Amino acid sequence: MDRKDRQIIRMLQQDGRITNQDLAARVNLSPSPCLRRVRNLEACGAIQGYSANADPELYGLPVTVFVRIRLESHNEKDVQHFESRVRAMDEVLECHVMTGQTDYQLRVVVADLNDYETFIRNRIHPIGCIASIDTSFVYGTVKKTAVFPDLG
């Protein structure tokens, strides 16, 4: 991937609905080579898809929660079981394997505190193999972006 490919990706991250004509102009390419590069970036998996960046509060899910989970054991069966169950939960927007005190960090969205309690009791607890759950509620966001930094 070269600098021009990175420019294309950053422009698409800023505006996924930009026309190829405008994209080409912003990255100083003619439209045909620009489109060819975009298609190549999609084909190799550098661009994994396109989506709408929606406001969770207006959607009806104003509460964002970071949930840190530590498993009781790290055998292959428990890890696969936990990860497959989490992948199936719509409330979980992200799940990361972590170093340090916890094994996983989840970013969860819910409508309110009662929904979160229901999520923990009915979705997380039944998984089993969980040693601890630590929760932090987001009460403000300082920065949120999906645009990668410019590597120069």
From TrEMBL:
<keyword id="KW-0238">DNA-binding</keyword>
<dbReference type="Pfam" id="PF13412">
    <property type="entry name" value="HTH_24"/>
</dbReference>
<dbReference type="Pfam" id="PF01037">
    <property type="entry name" value="AsnC_trans_reg"/>
</dbReference>
<dbReference type="InterPro" id="IPR019888">
    <property type="entry name" value="Tscrpt_reg_AsnC-like"/>
</dbReference>
<dbReference type="InterPro" id="IPR019887">
    <property type="entry name" value="Tscrpt_reg_AsnC/Lrp_C"/>
</dbReference>
<keyword id="KW-0804">Transcription</keyword>
<dbReference type="InterPro" id="IPR011008">
    <property type="entry name" value="Dimeric_a/b-barrel"/>
</dbReference>
<dbReference type="InterPro" id="IPR000485">
    <property type="entry name" value="AsnC-type_HTH_dom"/>
</dbReference>
<dbReference type="InterPro" id="IPR036388">
    <property type="entry name" value="WH-like_DNA-bd_sf"/>
</dbReference>
<protein>
    <submittedName>
        <fullName>Lrp/AsnC family transcriptional regulator</fullName>
    </submittedName>
</protein>
<dbReference type="InterPro" id="IPR019885">
    <property type="entry name" value="Tscrpt_reg_HTH_AsnC-type_CS"/>
</dbReference>
<dbReference type="InterPro" id="IPR036390">
    <property type="entry name" value="WH_DNA-bd_sf"/>
</dbReference>
<keyword id="KW-0805">Transcription regulation</keyword>
<dbReference type="InterPro" id="IPR011991">
    <property type="entry name" value="ArsR-like_HTH"/>
</dbReference>
<feature type="domain" description="HTH asnC-type">
    <location>
        <begin position="1"/>
        <end position="62"/>
    </location>
</feature>
